[in-house]
Amino acid sequence: MGYHGCDKDVGESILAGGNFKQSENSWDWLGSGVYFWEANPERGLEFAHEQANRKNPSKKYDPFVIGAVIDLGYCFDLTTKTSVDYLEVAYSSYLSVVKKAAQPLPVNDSRGKHHLDCAVINHMHEIMRTDNAQPLDTVKGLFIEGEPVFESSRFMKKTHIQICVRNLECIKGVFRVNI
Question: CA quadruple 149, 152, 153, 158: dihedral positive or negative?
């Protein structure tokens, strides 16, 4: 189960049969796709509230969360050693491309903008496409965020698992969440 934080109008449209809009931001942690909070509707709604605070105050934004049944399909799971090792190879390849092009390396920043992470994951997808490898349906990662739950704790208040769905056919259904 995944939970998608969004504006209420967007959520209601999706619940009525509309389509998800894939995120193409240069800072998306797991690359391009539709983002879900795994098994965490409260964090999805919290994110929607955070988005409302970032949006232009002159535009209406009503925080909302919808649920989705997701089949991970061919998943790049960054909680596994195999995927982490492959990501390291993709980073080395990306670094070579950037150096050859004499371009600056994107940077992850402390405000939650993950330009480098996004660029490396999107580069990895491009490597796979070029090699005629099976495209990934989803990307899954664990993110340790927020303040410690208690003093000196390694458990953080906003830690979560996020799923980025690239193949929308992996979204098997959506449902209303009442929280």
Answer: positive
Side-chain-side CA neighbours of residue 60 (13 Å): 5
Mean pLDDT score, 32-58:
90
Does the reported pTM lie above 0.90?
Answer: yes
Cα separation, 85 vs 79, in Å, equals 11
Give the span between the Cα atoms of 155 and 86, in whole angstroms.
27
Residue spans of beta strands (DSSP E) within 97-150: 138-143
| SS3 state at 34 | strand
Cα–Cα dist 40/2, whole Å? 7
Contacts of 35 (CB under 8 A, 6+ apart): 4, 23, 28, 162, 163, 164, 165
Tokens 């920043």, located at residue:
109
When pLDDT is averaged across residues 170-174 and rounded to a whole number, the result is 98
Q: What is the pLDDT of residue 40?
A: 97
Q: In the structure encoding, which two tokens stand for residue 176, read together?
A: 């209303």
What tokens were used for 75?
């998943």
Distance CA 149, CA 102 (A): 43
Residue 148 β-bridge partners: 156
**Strand-strand pairing, 160-165 and 138-143:** antiparallel
Task: Decide if 162 contacts 29 (C-beta within 8 A).
Answer: yes
